[in-house]
What does this fold into?
Amino acid sequence: MRTRDCLIFFVLYILAISFFMPASVGENQSVEVQKIWDQAAYNSFVDLVRFKNQWFCTFREGESHVYGKDGTIRVIRSLDAVTWESAVLLAEKGVDLRDPKISVTPDGRLMLLIGGSVYDGKTLVSRQPRVSFSADGDNWTPLQPILEKGDWLWRVTWFGDTAYGVSYELAEPDWLIKLFKSNDGLNYDLVTILDVQGSPNETTLRLTPEGEMIALVRRESGNKHAWIGTSKKEPYTEWTWTDSGHQVGGPNFIILPDGRIWASGRDYHQETRTVLAKLTRKSYEPVITLPSGGDTSYPGMVWFDGRLWEAYYSSHEGKASIYLAKVTLPE
It folds into this structure.
């Protein structure tokens, strides 16, 4: 009996640690991580939101990071953030759908912002963002192209009745990033071209309650360090920029109710990992390393019930899968 009891305890212990994997944390903070989706061959590029007392998580399903055949966008939902079910799978024939970002519009709908790429073999032929809306998370409007071919509006942030976002364009001799705004998520006006060098691309914007705009911009040439930008007030045409000192892939950040800012993205130090970092207007300081490795990052971040909830993807357990971390941050 003792041998059998020990065996049962050992099995239960293994199941427990595989369900809630430890992360690299310090004092006064804790992290619980659960794999929530791995049904496709390749699951990646994640975002997360709470909507009508439910969790909605979106990501791309495909065959690989790039050059997949017709990547699709999955949205899953959960009441408790433990048990998840598929809400919708969006597809467009001949188009690789990528980088979904989900937000809640001022009139109370979910909005999906999706990049659409067309390839000839491994050659990119064209790309253009798309949007889709839903009042309940189950029924979605047909994908509708926005902006122009060649644009890649990577994420929008709603502030009052206005959505702000940065699109990047693969221009010569250096890539361009352009700040846009919209009142309906469909029609966009150019605000300004942002003065960032070094092949800038993926950009997340957030706004303080006072209306100050903060940007975290990924860069792909030069020292490749992400830049932190601030613009004090509308029309957001005057910016101050600071080198973060770190290369960041798939950058995202969130401003907490007490004003602290936490960022997340792919860290390239030694091995690629998804990290949580303290962000200020002048600095980026990695603090917590989540269970991750290889092909990883592109997190969605939500502050709820006194904790930071982060959905991200990682291939450290074999294939790229979707994980959800529940983080108690240090005070």
Q: What stands out?
A: The longest strand covers residues 123-134.
